[in-house]
Amino acid sequence: MHLAYPAVLAALLFCTGLYGVLARRNAILVLMSVELMLNAVNLNLVAFDVWLRDTLHAGQALTLFTIAIAAAEIGIGLAIVLMVYRNRGTSDVDRLRDTAEGHEPDQNAARPEVAA
Amino acid sequence: MSTTTLAVLVPLLPFLGALAGLLLGRTAPGFVRPLAVLPTLAAAVLAVVVAVRQGGGKPISAATELTPTGSVPIDLSLYLDGFAVLVAVLVGVVATCVQVYSTAYLREDPRYPSYAALVSLFTSAMLLVVYSGDLMVLLVGWEIMGICSYFLVGHYWETEAARSASLKAFLVTKLGDVPFLFGLFALAADAGSFQITKILGTVAAGGLDHPTLIALLLLAGVAGKSAQFPLHTWLPDAMAGPTPVSALIHAATMVAAGVYFVARLLPVFAASQAALVVMAVMAAVTMIGSGLAALAQDDIKRVLAYSTIGQLGYMTGALAVGDREAAVFHLLSHGAFKALLFLGAGVIIHAAGTNSLAAMSRMDGLAKRIPDAFWTMTIALLALAAIPPFAGFFSKEAVLVAAEQTATGHSDLAPATAGWVVLVAGVLTALLTAAYAARLWLMAFRGHGAAAPDHGKEPLAMTGVLWLLAVPSIAFGLAFGPLTDWLDGSGLTPTLATSLLGTGAAVIGGLLTYGLWQRATAKAAAAPAAIGAAAAAAAGAATEQPAAMAASTSAATAAAVSAAETPEVDEVTHEHPAVPAGPAPDPGRALLGPLHRHAAAGFHLDAVYDRLFVRPVQASAGLVRFLDREVVDTYVRGAGLGPRLLGALVRRAQTGNVQTYLSALLAGAVVLAIATAVLANVNAGS
Amino acid sequence: MLTAHLAAAAQGPGFLSPTGVEIAFVLVGLATLGAAVITVNTKQLVHAALWLVVALGGIAVEYLLLTAEFIAWVQVLIYLGSVVVLLLFGLMLTKAPIGRSPDADSNNRWVALGVASVAAAALVWVVVDAFRTTWIDLDGPAQGSTKVSGEILFQHWVLPFEALSVLLLAALIGAIVLSRKDDAPTADGAAPAGQAATAATAAPDESKGQR
Fold first, then answer.
1. Which are the contacts of C102, defined by CB distance < 8 A and separation ≥ 6?
2. Tell me, what's the ipTM?
3. Residue spans with biased composition (Basic and acidic residues) (chain A) (predicted)?
4. What structural domains does chain A harbor?
């Protein structure tokens, strides 16, 4: 099999995830996109590992680690999103603008997603 | 102990007392009074011992060089001649009296410890000036006095008047001190030494290259310190300080320092005839102006302040005719009776509860409340008015004799012009002095109206000091014979002509004032009944006013006075109808006529200075502020504008949206990656 | 260099004569990519999660095609089994609307599209340029079997593996701490009360906007 196929697929998947991270409003959808990006990387790792016939199988081992870390990341990420949602009433990324100048620190607090 | 050691101890003891007072003032309040009085007393006793040992003989000179200071050496040196030891005795005695008096006068004052320490320091500085044989060391004492006077005049710093007065005293004296410093340097440069003996040697050898310049520069400092025209304006304002401080400043220290300095370096001044004439004119203007101003003052302390300026004018006049014995003689006797006057005034103010002469003239029996002050003040005022046989008579006579001798050409030390100027001004001032002394006495002690408030008996520390000072006020003048031995030895004996002239002028002034006062009193007594009539009469008298004014002017200036003129002057009093609320019989008004208004304001010198110096300085400060705010700041603001706009642009990018940030970041990363790839391809291809 | 490349391309199997594995890989890859694109584009949040399942499953199949079977099963277990379930729970807990939500994409979309497409073009260009002649030999002994993976994992990678366990523990504790509801009365002060009040007043129009 040509190495180009998995490599191109990984690149496209990665860019799809990139688009999702940048374009999605909901924090959970952003996390999903991050997962897509991670998987693209994993695919690359596996493909190159198979191509190189590495005796240590570093690519596959790293893939396993990445999967484990991704699981941890999704757990922590979701916990953070939940906490933000609980405190702010929203999980929309572009509403969390506390770092902007001239913004009141808690302007977006108590947005009534709770009621919805 | 040798005389030199004793002389070193004299300035040192009050200095140590001041240090101890400043250090222990808070922690050990019980020690403050002994620490204030005892070192000063010891210094006074030692000064007397030094004076006796020196005995008017050869000057004792001792010097030690602390460290080499280059081409012009500065030594710690003593130079004890007759002048120095006598002035030191005066300083010590007056300072002791002031310290003792202050223990009672400032009994309740919470800042007494620092006050007493500063007075001690002041005394020490003056003693240093007196004994020092080196001009640089003298300057140190000179400047310490300046700063001490600043603190002491501003003792009641809670009041605006005291604050501004202390600042004014400091600035005006400093204004004189700058040329003074230049003069000292020029003198040392010409003589090659700061040692007084060497300088005098150089002068005697004619080695001074620029005598007029040096003398005039030094004269500026002397005018500042000794409150001579035109730098005298700080002295009347310095009355904002406590009364004992006024006594100290006016009688023995500070103002005396200037006269003493000139007396010490008289040959330097005498080397320049022009300087002597300038000094004579300065003295004459000071004398007459201050006499007129003193007649118009209402504050008893301001009257005394102007009288000090006038008496200092006598001393300067004596120096201007080259007779330093007369000057120092008058300095000594004036120190005694002026200290007495101020301390007595303190008692009067204490008893009357006011500074105002007009208010005192509406009080009955003030003299009976404070008999000690009444009698001693009477003595001191007689001395001030130079009535024989009180101290002031002899010393003033010495001045007039010296002036007369110069004017008639018997003495060739100074130009005859200076002699004439001093003589005429001196006689005129004798009249004015007697007039304001009489006015003060009459208004303070012979008032009519409500009974004076009873504050109980004055403490012994205050009255005792008064009697102590009354002794030299009475008798010091008779010592002119022995004094001659201490001084240069050219004789201080009064002559018949000048005695008659001076005393006659004084008696005329006193009698004239008394007559006017009686008129005014009668008028004041009649005033309540005839206010309406007085107003109508004032309108009617308006046509006669020019003539009346002319007459009063002649009365005040030419002293062509007699009882015949009294009716005309009477109309002048009519021109100033006493305020109905409290008619105060004030002979000064009558005597001065239209001049009164100007004299009361010190001839508007403050206003002139305001115009000449304060306003331009303020205007230039305003200009500088304008330049800084509007011109310089415009550039600064302009320089700030660019970054500010840039910042506003950049701030627009800070939306707070994380995704935007990330987009920009990743876009940049992609661009970089592409650039790297392209570059790698290009490099590989080449 | 260039000639060597061309020679290698000429020698190796061409793109125009694909093997069966290649055809399967491309087809599954297209399906995966399509699912991924739908995941990042759909307006319905839950659908996005479900399409993510398809995409991740497709990647698992790709692993299988690349003979990495252990990783394929791990992928299925962890991603399909747990991560997607977690994400669905997250959607549920944040009360994500069911059905189409018009504001699923932010205003940043066009910028994101630009960045993503440029990045894709650059990556694809670089990757294709670098690996267009590289050939993976899938024959021979299995490289990703469970046995092989176990051996290398517990022989060569045991230390990182253990470190990873610590990381997972830390993540576990962190997630618990973060998501625990703070029920202490001191923490529930005036602020949450005020928050609830504003939430109640502003509730109607907000819910209208979401429908």
1. C43
2. 0.82
3. 95-106
4. 4-95 (1.10.287.3510)
